[in-house]
Amino acid sequence: MKIQKSWNDSYERKENFLFYPSDGVVQFVNRYIRKRIGISEFIDLVDYPVIGLDAGCGIGRHVKFGIEQGFSMFGFDLSSVSISIAHDWLARHLKICDIANLTIQSSNYLSYDNAAFNLLICDSVLDSMPFMTAQETIGEFYRISKPGTYFYSTYIFKSTLGTSWDWEIVIEDKHEKNTIQSYFDDTKIYRLLEPLFEIVTIRLFSYSSNDNEVNGRWQVVAKRRG
Ligand SMILES: C[S@@+](CC[C@H](N)C(=O)[O-])C[C@H]1O[C@@H](n2cnc3c(N)ncnc32)[C@H](O)[C@@H]1O
Q1: For position 165, what pLDDT does the model report?
Q2: Is a pLDDT exceeding 80 seen at residue 162?
């Protein structure tokens, strides 16, 4: 409840008011799910229909993007404030999504049926919770997805962490104050995903600061094991 309040406070401050899809999600969908080859020509790379879940959807930018690609999309978030904005934006204003598809849930205990989805998106979320909750979440993602489901996720990186795989802090800065930040190296990502999802690609996008610290974000495409 305390973490949920911290996320609600963050959204009340209009943090993570992100209306456009991330480059990584656009590239992932175009490369693995539905490739655009013309003004109205597409190649479907997975079996249809695509039933997608944006886990930790925030205000719903990737739910919207998935709907625009022709997918049935669902989204959930721990924050009632972000879900209320998603309802206003996608259901009431744009009228492209049912309110019932956007729900308040914690990722480690989900209401969906077994094998309900064949697309999973989880952008900047599994690093916003304790590692143990992330491990429980991956178990739930395995349960609710079909064998072979493509799963896109991202994770924050900081070079000064060394090789510690369980490094996590409570954020003290104003942005996302009192939420958890769990930093990842590649070993920690493999440890989280590989038992249940096979990693297809893992890429680190990084930038250096003046003090030689390297910060960045991992983009990972994985596939649910059979
Ligand atoms: C950095 S924001 C990213 C939001 C969204 N994925 C995006 O890319 O716009 C992290 C999100 O994770 C959500 N979150 C954190 N822990 C969660 C949990 N256990 N279950 C569901 N959502 C969670 C937060 O409420 C927040 O909306």
Answers
A1: 67
A2: no
Q: Which helix (H) or strand (E) holds 132?
A: helix 131-144
Residue 223 burial by CB count (10 A; 0-12/13-18/19+): exposed, middle or buried?
A: middle
Closest to 106 measured CA to CA, from 125, 88, 93: 125
Q: Which atom of ligand 1 is nearest to the CA of 106?
A: 20
Domains detected in the chain: 2-16+45-224 (3.40.50.150)
Sign of CA dihedral 71, 153, 101, 85: negative
Query: Residues of 86-123 as b/e, b for ≥16 C-beta within 10 angstroms?
Result: bbebbbeeeeebeeebbbebbbbebebeeeebbbbbbb
Q: How far is the CA of 66 from the centre of ligand 1 (A)?
A: 17
Q: Report the predicted TM-score, pTM, of the whole model to 2 decimal places.
A: 0.96
CA dist 176 and 145 (Å) reads 30
CA dist 141 and 155 (Å) reads 17
Q: Using the predicted structure, report yes or no on whether residue 141 has a pLDDT greater than 80.
A: yes
Average pLDDT, the chain: 95
Would you say the CB of residue 133 lies under 6 angstroms from ligand 1?
Answer: yes
107 touches ligand 1 (CB under 6 Å): yes
